[in-house]
Write a structure and sequence with these properties.
260 residues; alpha/beta; Rossmann fold; 8 helices; 12% strand
């Protein structure tokens, strides 16, 4: 298992915690900065010649203010979607060497508030951090569903599943700004633990009964056992998915090859 992390020191601390629970675990820590496409390419080229069975696109952030990545993308869209899009593109050859590869994409309850896809991908004149985050998570889910559809269309043994943790106390929402402070405070009091929140992603990655394209989340929305839940209509909009796919390829400068 490769732990792809922005901060190698924190990654090694996580690796130690894993080995305390599973002493025989085979783990490796590697640096990956999704806000920098050069870092994504460097990481991807380290592993594109091997075999990848499961790729979990887990990273996510909520910006405190309008910020851009190294490559000039709005930060939430750049990290939460475009960085993962390029990473998945680069690792697809390794995924396709697996007999039953799976890609898991981290969605969110906030997709319900996102509306339709913003074709400017965060570069428009109006901006709020929460909307930027919601749009980036909508893009993650749309990418997950469209990847599964395209893989099936060309007969590839690759499934793509979207998951969300419900309301989980992960520390994702910082304390900058009134809305973030209120959200952060309520989360500390009411949300489920990160361990419980992770159950949806674990099921999305490991449940062989899933056929691909599903959305896995807590049964009751914010809480509950991980279950197959309904996608928002905007997530399964085929025309918007085509627009997102084309824009993503253009932004990251890489075509996504599935046909072989």
């Amino acid at each position: 298992m490769v732990l792809a992390v922005r901060d190698p020191e924190r990654g090694r601390a996580a690796e130690r915690r894993i080995r305390e629970r599973v002493p025989r675990a085979h783990t490796e820590v590697a640096r990956l900065q999704l806000a920098d496409l050069a870092s994504v390419r460097e990481f991807g080229h380290q592993y594109d010649h091997g075999v990848v069975d499961i790729l979990v696109n887990n990273a996510g952030l909520v910006p405190g203010e309008r910020t851009v990545t190294t490559d000039g993308f709005e930060l939430a869209m750049g990290v939460n979607h475009l960085g993962h899009f390029l990473l998945t593109t680069l690792l697809t050859p390794a995924l396709l060497r697996s007999d039953h590869a799976r890609v898991v994409h981290l969605g969110s309850l906030v997709i319900r508030t996102a509306g339709s896809l913003d074709p400017q991908l965060g570069d428009g004149p109006t901006y709020t951090p929460f909307r930027a985050y919601a749009q980036s998570k909508l893009a993650c889910a749309m990418f997950g569903v469209e990847l599964d559809r395209r893989a099936k269309a060309v007969g590839r043994h690759l499934t793509s599943v979207v998951a969300h943790p419900g309301w989980s106390g992960t520390g994702l929402f910082g304390n900058e700004g009134m809305r973030q402070r209120i959200t952060s405070g309520a989360t500390r009091l009411l949300a489920s633990s990160p361990e419980k929140g992770a159950q949806s992603q674990i099921r999305a990655a490991c449940d062989l009964a899933l056929i691909g394209g599903e959305f896995i989340g807590p049964r009751f929305g914010a809480y509950g056992r991980p279950s197959v839940v309904a996608h928002q209509p905007s997530v399964v909009d085929r025309d918007a998915a085509q627009i997102l796919w084309d824009l993503s390829e253009k932004r990251v400068g890489q075509q996504f090859e599935l046909a072989g």
